[in-house]
Design brief:
Elements (H helix, E strand, L loop, with lengths): L1 E3 L6 E5 L2 E4 L7 E3 L2 E4 L17 H16 L6
Length: 76
Amino acid sequence: MRLTERGSGVEFAFRDGAWTSGSIRGSEVVIGGAKVVGDRLPPIAGPVGGSAIDTEVRTAVGQILSALRTHGLIAS
């Protein structure tokens, strides 16, 4: 069963004995004919090693990987 709240336009679905909102189920997201999100990929290791350590780049890459993991786009 599904319903949409008039005031906010939020859609609710009744699944497994409970109401949920904000969930979208599917196998991919396509925008303008281009696939932008698909199946979750395996984990990506954080930056380590190398002869020249750039802490700013490692911090930035670490934050990007953390955001991707948080959103479930890559495995932890």
